[in-house]
Design brief:
Shape: globular
Number of helices: 15
Structural class: alpha/beta
Radius of gyration: 21 Å
Number of strands: 10
Oligomer: single chain
CATH topology of one domain: Rossmann fold
Length: 423
């Protein structure tokens, strides 16, 4: 069983580049079974890279020449989508570009047919751009319709709250509502939180000085890819007797952290350490960045929590397991109605920081802090919508008033469900 990995838009492809860099690194002693969830029988990665502009995807040509990427799976258009969800969702009406969606679905069909047993799609994209938000919304809708038995896991990046584009709130509103309707789980990364976490990691590694370390976009993408590797890299516990790894993409992960179908937005945190490991200390590092309460002072809760520990000293985690899980359960405030809110997986290979003395702890939680992002998106989009700001750009490319009304209702309903978790 394995998934197809779909990268859409500039952000989705840049994170994908870092993701595949980790997974194909020569520093990691990959077993053939570990490659199974990511590769077709011919050894090429089951990855499809899509963008309406060629500049980012063209960088992957080196991987095509090395034989890891299939050239027909690099799908590009000739012009962007203007940071406009409607433009990305409905596409261009010119004969030269209208088939971007069709070409993507054709490549996806071929990849599905190459797999021994297709289990779903992992979609990498952002909420802010026209391609990342609009085209990915259309793709997850079409994939759900054509491959209804496969699960869809979305790796979604939210833009900075300070603003990257005047249309980002509309794009995020519409894309999040489509994700809520069509995907099974959303690994949600917020650029502001990723920036803070990456800056903290760089400061920890850098020599002591008065200067704050400069955080590059590449470093932020690496952090996101590292979190994904901690969650999605195959574990020995999921390897069959024949030596084939089942992976966790996306079934086992979703079964662990999405017990309620209407709540599917997931918070991820990770901590790494070299040398002698103190798992209680790693757990403290993970929960340090966790939002504990809303701006209104309402405590956050979790429906479920998954902890994945990677260490060459796997037995040391098992000795500390109870105290680590107790700390996580307390910090994440697991709801009382879930009888088994905590899951724990371990493995002796740490792909996050390859080396004989490295350890990582990655925690994925269905956490009510996601409601704050949804509420912020709704509030800012609604303020613009009431003044008719920029709406003509959405009407121009096929968007309708019903799309906005349904999006507002969907996100308000989800945010309300999360806010009532502690009741």
């Amino acid at each position: 069983m394995s998934a197809v990995w779909l990268h859409v838009g500039q952000c989705g492809n840049q994170i994908g580049e870092e993701w595949w860099q980790i997974l194909t690194s020569e520093k990691v002693p990959h077993a053939e079974a570990d490659r199974h969830p990511f590769c077709s029988p011919d050894g090429q990665l089951s990855a499809i890279c899509v963008d309406s502009e060629p500049k980012v995807v063209r960088k992957l040509q080196k991987r095509v020449r090395r034989g890891s990427f299939r050239e027909t799976n690099l799908i590009v258009g000739k012009r962007g989508r203007g940071n406009n969800w409607a433009y990305g969702y409905h596409g261009l009406h010119s004969a030269s570009e209208k088939n971007l969606l069709e070409r993507t679905m054709e490549s996806l069909r071929k990849e599905v047919e190459r797999r021994d047993c297709y289990c779903g799609t992992v979609l990498f994209h952002s909420l802010g751009g026209g391609t990342g938000a609009g085209l990915s919304s259309r793709l997850c809708e079409v994939i759900r319709d054509e491959y209804s038995l496969g699960q869809i896991l979305s790796v979604t990046v939210a833009p900075h709250q300070a603003g990257e584009s005047p249309l980002q709130h509309y794009n995020a509103l519409l894309c999040l509502s489509w994700l809520q309707r069509h995907v099974d789980g959303v690994l949600l990364f917020q650029n502001d939180a990723v920036l803070r976490r990456t800056a903290a990691l760089l400061a920890k590694k850098a020599p002591v000085s008065d200067m704050q370390p400069q955080v590059s976009l590449s470093a932020m993408n690496t952090y996101v890819a590292s979190c994904l590797a901690g969650l999605l890299y195959p574990l020995k516990a999921f390897t069959t007797g024949s030596g084939i790894s089942m992976g966790m993409e996306p079934g086992e992960l979703l079964r662990s952290v999405c017990p309620v179908p209407t709540m599917k937005f997931l918070h991820i945190a990770q901590a790494c350490e070299r040398g002698t490991v103190f798992w209680d200390s790693l757990a403290s590092s993970v929960v340090h960045s966790l939002p504990r309460a809303s701006h209104a002072g309402q405590p956050h809760y979790s429906t479920s929590v998954l902890a994945v520990a990677h260490s060459y000293q796997e037995d040391t985690f098992l000795l500390s397991r109870d105290s680590v899980l107790r700390k996580l359960k307390q910090a994440y405030r697991c709801v009382p109605w879930n009888p088994f809110p905590l899951s724990c997986w371990t493995d002796s290979l740490n792909i996050v920081e390859p080396g004989c003395h490295s350890h990582s702890l990655t925690v994925c939680a269905n956490h009510s802090s996601s409601a704050e992002l949804l509420q912020q998106v709704v509030a800012r989009a609604e303020a613009m919508y009431k003044t008719n700001a920029y709406l003509h750009w959405y009407w121009r490319y096929g968007c309708e008033e019903e799309d906005f009304q349904q999006a507002f209702e969907t996100l308000c309903s989800v945010a309300d469900d999360y806010s009532r978790l502690g009741e």
